[in-house]
Amino acid sequence: MRKFLIATHGAFAKGIKSSLDMIIGETDNVFLIQAYLDDAISVEDELAAVLIHITADDELVIFTDLLGGSVNNIMIREALKDNVHIVSGFNLPLLIEVIMGDAGTPVTEVIETAIIDGKEQMVYVNKLITQQND
Fold first, then answer.
1. What is the pLDDT of residues 4-26, one digit of tens each?
2. Residue 124, Cα to own-chain centre: how many angstroms?
3. b (16+ CB within 10 A) / e for 32-56
């Protein structure tokens, strides 16, 4: 089964999951890590609590907010296995595309296509409008 983890600094993970649920409906195979909200719980412990739900037959796609950020570095250090894929710098369109991706399509292909499409969603709208009016 394909499973997903949204791991971010602070409450961003919960906020984007809220938007995700609103757009595609609730999903039960999405885990969240909201790093550093509770000083008593380490990110490593939060990740360990997620990884107990991942079997060797599962694929886990981890979304992190910042490449090179502490959350991303912990995910790489603790979770880079053959069945684990990490995507940093995600946005909502990319998240939707990966989570809604065809389970029969290799996850690497789903991720690569979603990254291309996600980049296309970032547009300086003012410039776009100006160009259309010229």
1. 999 999 999 999 999 999 999 99
2. 23
3. bbbbeeeeeeebeebbeebeeebee
